[in-house]
Amino acid sequence: MDVTSLLPLTTPRLSLRLFTPGDADDLYAYQSLPSVARYLYRPPHTRERSEQVAAERAAHSVWCADGDKLALAVCRRDEPGLLGEVTLTLASARAAQAEIGWTVDPRHQGHGYATEAARALAGFAFDRLGVHRLYARLDVENTGSVRVCERLGMRREAHLVENDLDGDRWGSEYIYAALAADIGGRAGS
Question: Per the domain annotation, does 67 fall within a domain?
Fold first, then answer.
């Protein structure tokens, strides 16, 4: 399914839309920061990588096969520029399971944007895309994302200890999840 006709998603304060190649500068502004990359288990983006990512995301709006990823730019409804992004990755088409993620520019953190955007995307996943189980993987030290998961009504299902190597640092992850029956109807509200 091509989800283009179902977008943008809107909330009282936000618009979640497909990326455009013109988003590269805003994307680079936060994806190049070591403090952001640290929780994504990858190096900070270069300017060139941000351009490539923006172009790739702009070109992908299909949701049907394992590994398909929908990445949406999170913007204020009343002003231009990115606040961050939310992502949905189809982990298993057969089992209707998807991974949700979010990244917010540190300049815009602390205003509830991640929770508002993730709630809208979770509602979309359950109510429009037919997802049965939604999960999030996050670094245990990422307390902001832990709070987002808990505000969404997700439950902590696992604590993976030193399961990933980030440069020279072993990172541990939490896995949070929710079923459509748990929060499907209230995720979008």
Answer: yes
Question: What confidence tens digit (pLDDT) does each residue in 94-125 have?
Answer: 999 999 999 999 999 999 999 999 999 999 99
Which residues is 175 bridged to in the sheet?
137, 158
Judge whether 109 lies within some domain. yes
Q: Considering its fold, how many domains does the chain have in total? A: 1
Q: Would you say residue 158 lies in a domain? A: no
The model's pTM: 0.93
pLDDT tens digits, residue range 3-53?
999 999 999 999 999 999 999 999 999 999 999 998 888 899 999 999 999
Rounded Cα distance between 43 and 46, Å, is 9
When computed from its CA atoms, the radius of gyration of the chain, rounded to whole angstroms, is 16
CATH code where residue 116 lies: 3.40.630.30
Which tokens is 130 given? Answer: 């037919």
Question: Which amino acid belongs to residue 146?
Answer: V
- The secondary element (H helix, E strand) that includes residue 166 is strand 155-166
Establish if 143 belongs to a structural domain. no
**Structural domain that includes position 65:** 4-134
Contact 136, 175 (CB under 8 A): yes
